[in-house]
Amino acid sequence: MPYIGRDLSQGNYLKLDNISTQFDGSKVSFDLTAGGTAFFPGSSMALVVSLGGVLQEAETAYTIDQSSIEFASAPNAAQDCFIVVMGTSIGVSVPADGSVTMAKLAQSG
Q: Where are the beta strands (DSSP E) in the chain?
């Protein structure tokens, strides 16, 4: 069924590379990559993680450490997995010294 509604105006939704080929039933930590490049999600809350078709709860079933995901228990060797990033953090620039003038500041009443 196609998407019904307005098009998304923003967002950086991304499916990460498959890590299930590394599952062996004992390993719990896996490197996250997108297109073969290390991916740093910033927060476990930014991810939707499915193991064997079951969604995993962030901070309970898995945590993030830099560009690695660590599961609370080792995934079975035969489990399938997908990870979707629901958004990436953006940086907010700091204005250069002397670039903010009084005309750009709002008065509070």
A: 14-15, 29-31, 33-34, 37-38, 47-51, 54-55, 62-65, 68-71, 81-85
